[in-house]
Amino acid sequence: MGAQGKRVPRAVREQQMLDAAVATFARRGYRAASMDEIAEAAGVSKPLVYLYLHSKDDLFTACIRREAAALKAAVRAAVELDGPADRQLWSGLLGFFEHTAAHPDGWTVLYSQARTVGEPFADEVAAMRAEIVEFVRGLIAAAARDADCDDGDLAEREVAALAHALVGAAESLAGRALGGTAASSGRENAATLMNFAWSGLANLMDGRPWTPSR
Amino acid sequence: MGAQGKRVPRAVREQQMLDAAVATFARRGYRAASMDEIAEAAGVSKPLVYLYLHSKDDLFTACIRREAAALKAAVRAAVELDGPADRQLWSGLLGFFEHTAAHPDGWTVLYSQARTVGEPFADEVAAMRAEIVEFVRGLIAAAARDADCDDGDLAEREVAALAHALVGAAESLAGRALGGTAASSGRENAATLMNFAWSGLANLMDGRPWTPSR
Amino acid sequence: MGAQGKRVPRAVREQQMLDAAVATFARRGYRAASMDEIAEAAGVSKPLVYLYLHSKDDLFTACIRREAAALKAAVRAAVELDGPADRQLWSGLLGFFEHTAAHPDGWTVLYSQARTVGEPFADEVAAMRAEIVEFVRGLIAAAARDADCDDGDLAEREVAALAHALVGAAESLAGRALGGTAASSGRENAATLMNFAWSGLANLMDGRPWTPSR
Amino acid sequence: MGAQGKRVPRAVREQQMLDAAVATFARRGYRAASMDEIAEAAGVSKPLVYLYLHSKDDLFTACIRREAAALKAAVRAAVELDGPADRQLWSGLLGFFEHTAAHPDGWTVLYSQARTVGEPFADEVAAMRAEIVEFVRGLIAAAARDADCDDGDLAEREVAALAHALVGAAESLAGRALGGTAASSGRENAATLMNFAWSGLANLMDGRPWTPSR
DNA sequence: CATGAATGAGAATTCATTCAT
DNA sequence: TATGAATGAATTCTCATTCAT
């Protein structure tokens, strides 16, 4: 039924299947997406999907792994390693927003679907997220060192919180961007976050955080 | 089999059912939760659930509406309307974090489940979210006016972005708090965000945002 | 589709389902029998079968248990407990052959199907068989004591072998009777076996077994 | 993946396939055994199995025929044709028990699986069985003639029954031997049956069978 | 107010079998 | 001689939903 010719080598077919699966999972969610639907979208029969990907769970896991790897690769590739720390963070954020904008289905699967389905999948995504948070934390810490040599370890805990909040905010903005509502560009989103992060960082380093004390 | 006595008035039964449904939807997700499971958790027979709540969709909608209303009410009740703007924002955030921590299932249903199931439900949640974003935006704008009379409308667009990012970050932190990983208290989370918001706001008002230009 | 009226109480429906299942398993074998087929034969829809009997495995187990219980009950009821040992054995064999002839499907399920499907089911049948063998062994031993007081324990091992062979031969004859080939009556079969058993027993007691020594 | 080299002559490959099929059918049953499993066990690809053996049914039939032929050959070869009738029967039984013990999978396929799958296969086995029964009947009749010239045809019917019971008991004992429970040797089993058969025969010839008349 | 009995529709998964090379 | 690629047709099992009482 698909337009593809027959007799395609396995590696190629597998990618076609993963493409179809990512699109379908993104649109319908893990549970609502049926293997029939995915097979049809891939232009193959259901048994072939099972022959190559073994089960719905395995298929979903393969999707998550592929998309997570692609996202991580995109971010790493985007970072300008030889610039100053703020420049590195900026380029990483830009890479993140551009990749998620270019692969909305992948992002949806990772962020919206995989996290809500439960144990085995959520863990996979949590691991990827932890990697990214750590990466960002390193950049922020480096930036702090660049700007202010002494007092670096004082902010240890705050730097971690900042990294977490930054990643959370980035995810949130990426989600908004896909929502179609506000077609905010990747540059805009990245700039917003830099403002966030950099000023928060400055306050922290200056030792004058906002407090509820009044 | 239910432990409840028979002949319970309708209003009470409905709340029991909604309680059971929220807990079940939170634990298993919309699709994976079965009406059997929910009826059993509520201690009633399935036909009674249908008699009162009509269908799975309607039941889920009722859950979303109830939890959204409760969250909005909690936030509004927490805001100290007569204080300065930063104090208002602080108290609202605190209310938000305390309510979501006290009602993790409700938060999960709203944030994780309802958004991923698709059209009719996601819209409902989006509307609630929009209300909250608007509320926050108002507070930030007021704070800006408090601090700096002129030049207010210049930042119009940035203020909206800031509100969005703030809400996104709050959601992200609330999600983390439920994850059990970092048992960050509501106070901590609220403080982190105030730092974020206030310093970002200060930069914006001072007209010196971070830019990638270097 | 079945001719039965609707709204039948659960206990009754369950028996109807077991009847249909026994007949179907007997005719087609465990694997080849489909739940669709069984449901149709029972005059109900498939989901009802699952609601009451939970799974194909459980259904088969229920069949085995019911038929095994019925067979054991029939044999025990047939034995004339107050007669001499040979009379008891005779009446038990007669009961066995009459029950298996009257319930050919049950016998087929127990004997042909359950034993070939593997672990969980075969064990169930093996247990029933062991009970019957032990029962027969007791009768033979009693008969030996009746006839000849001394030397009883010498034959211990041979008596067990005899009991086993007798049950095996009985099963074999019961199988033949169902095959439709030789419509041998229960009386004939029982008599054949009594001849077997009694003369073998006599030889054993006389201490002159056949030996290959020449 | 198979360890065999390529380009094996057809006759050899066929035997490899039949070996694998017999083992697989014995372990899993006809329905539960899959062609994939068999092909893998044989170390060849599935299309090759189809090329040589045409279909699952044909493959099973080929298994039955091969194993039946082997069993019959083993029994015939074991019989000492020039001895007295009881010696012939003894040696035949010994051959039977030794062959089935040496080829448990073949015996399982013939006895447990083929008989329960239904029509086309059961007939094949029934035919083999009939041959063996007839062979045994001949031996018993000859033995009767040896011992007692007159009155031979009186027992005609009983001799047939005796042959049937003997074969049935032999099958039962062979089955037990595979069960692993009682590691009864072939000699023991053969001796048990000779005792059975010979004494039953003696009683019949003496015209004093056991009767329920008392 | 409340439920035991029942089902149509669809889900994941497996299997025997074939083609093109 | 031998196989990687591919599928139509079941099969087991679940679920939202309704009726008669």
UniProtKB/TrEMBL annotation, chains A, B, C, D:
Pfam families on file: TetR_C_46, TetR_N
InterPro entries: DesT_TetR_C, Homeodomain-like_sf, HTH-type_TetR-like_transc_reg, HTH_TetR, Tet_transcr_reg_TetR-rel_C_sf
Key words of the record: DNA-binding, Transcription, Transcription regulation
DNA bind region: 34-53
Chain ranges of the HTH tetR-type domain: 11-71
PANTHER family: HTH-TYPE TRANSCRIPTIONAL REGULATOR RUTR, POSSIBLE TRANSCRIPTIONAL REGULATORY PROTEIN (PROBABLY TETR-FAMILY)
Name listed for the protein in its UniProt record: TetR/AcrR family transcriptional regulator
Source organism per UniProt: Actinacidiphila polyblastidii
